[in-house]
Every structure is written in structure tokens, then in C-alpha cells.
Design a protein that fits this description.
Radius of gyration: 17 Å
Strand content: over 45%
Number of helices: 1
Number of strands: 11
CATH topology: Jelly Rolls
């Protein structure tokens, strides 16, 4: 009985992974500048650019929870009105068209203490911010998207994975 349950569980898990594998653009990367709580550059991360077609659902890892959002802003906007997300991993955004300048996310802990920010200047339409770089496990965090350039940013769809 236990063996049937375990085999069934792994079969479902295998189907989940097969159906949700993202595709990566050949030889293209996106660069993230990671800043600490004093806005000092502490790391530069390069990750492959993810290509998402309209028929694919953007699920990159198994997370217990996710939050879907859309947004339109010129300066900054809080995700879910500054709600806290426990143990976040990524904040993913699909932008409408090219954005006008440096675009990033500010990270605050559950006591609203600034933890740092992650910023990109790359022109990818799908951006997956690795917020776990500035949001260690064991606490809850809230996020503010910001635009350092001119013009408006439109997030067609966004996800917080936590």
C-alpha cells in the first residue's frame, strides 16, 4: 500500500516537472546588481534569460505558495499593499514592452526594516528577481517595485513565490 502511494506521488511529481520546465534563450543572460541595507553594491548575479510563451505557465520551482499580481507605475509600487511573504524565493515579472530604465525591487523585513534591493538594467521582458539573496529564510518580507528611469512600467503579470 505504501509503495503504491509513493509511486503515485513520484509519478505526479514527474508530470509536474515535465509540464513546467522553462526554456532559456541561447547565450543570453540578465544581470542583477544586489545592494545591501546601506545601498552598497555587494554582488552582481548573471542568470539565463527565461523565454515564456503565451501557452506556458511560469512556474519555476515547487513553492508552497504564490501570489499573482499586475501593476502599472512610474516611480514605485508596493506588492499587495505591503503584505508580508514568508520565506520568499523569487519575484517574477512579465513586462509589457521595453521598460524605460533601471528597474528593481526593494526588500523590507516584517518589521519594515530595509534589507536592500536588487536592480537590473537589462531589457528582458520576463524578469525573475532572486529576492532570497537579501531575504534570508526564517522571516517574512514585503516588496516595493521601483523604476529609476523615466516613463511608465506595466507589469502584465507578476508572481511572488514563497
Amino acid at each position: 500500500m505504501k509503495l503504491k502511494f509513493i509511486l503515485g506521488f513520484f509519478a505526479i511529481l514527474t508530470l509536474f516537472f515535465i509540464g513546467s520546465t522553462p526554456s532559456y534563450a541561447a547565450d543570453e543572460t540578465i544581470t542583477f546588481d544586489v545592494y545591501d541595507e546601506n545601498d552598497q553594491l555587494v554582488d552582481v548575479i548573471e542568470e539565463p534569460v527565461v523565454e515564456i510563451s503565451d501557452s506556458e505557465e511560469p512556474i519555476f520551482s515547487i513553492m508552497a505558495n504564490s501570489y499573482y499580481f499586475t501593476a502599472s507605475f512610474s516611480s514605485n509600487i508596493w506588492i499587495k499593499n505591503r503584505a508580508n511573504f514568508r520565506n520568499p524565493q523569487n519575484v517574477d515579472t512579465s513586462l509589457s514592452g521595453r521598460y524605460p530604465g533601471p528597474y528593481g525591487i526593494r526588500i523590507y523585513n516584517s518589521k519594515n526594516v530595509y534589507q536592500g534591493r536588487i536592480e537590473t538594467r537589462d531589457a528582458a521582458n520576463w524578469i525573475s528577481f532572486p529576492v532570497s539573496q537579501r531575504a534570508p529564510r526564517g522571516d517574512s518580507y514585503n516588496f516595493q517595485l521601483y523604476n529609476s528611469g523615466s516613463g511608465k512600467i506595466v507589469v502584465k503579470e507578476g508572481y511572488v513565490y514563497y
